[in-house]
């Protein structure tokens, strides 16, 4: 769960999208929210900035119903509500 890992994830996602993969499965709790942020960065870059892929061709699945932690904000799930509500 560090910047080096995020770069690898982003490169993998970009490679997959350019090689026929169009379904991305994620959740807030994957890698302390970093996975969703990494996916968002890649999609933003490829759809909005570079216009290399079309959003309507990508399927994105995520999950809800858990209280996540946030690795970047150093928040653990057990104190998440106390910190943000």
TrEMBL record:
Q: Which domain of life is it from?
A: Bacteria
Q: Where is the NADP-dependent oxidoreductase domain?
A: 11-82
Pfam entry (one)? Aldo_ket_red
Q: Tell me the SUPFAM superfamilies matching this sequence.
A: NAD(P)-linked oxidoreductase
Please state what the protein is called. Answer: Aryl-alcohol dehydrogenase-like predicted oxidoreductase
């Amino acid at each position: 769960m560090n910047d080096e890992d995020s770069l690898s994830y982003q490169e993998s996602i970009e490679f997959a999208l350019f090689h026929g993969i169009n379904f991305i499965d994620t959740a807030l709790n994957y890698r302390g929210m970093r996975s969703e942020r990494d996916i968002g960065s890649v999609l933003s870059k490829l759809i909005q900035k570079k216009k290399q892929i079309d959003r309507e061709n990508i399927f994105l699945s995520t999950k809800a119903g858990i209280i996540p932690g946030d690795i970047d904000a150093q928040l653990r799930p057990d104190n998440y509500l106390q910190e943000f509500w």
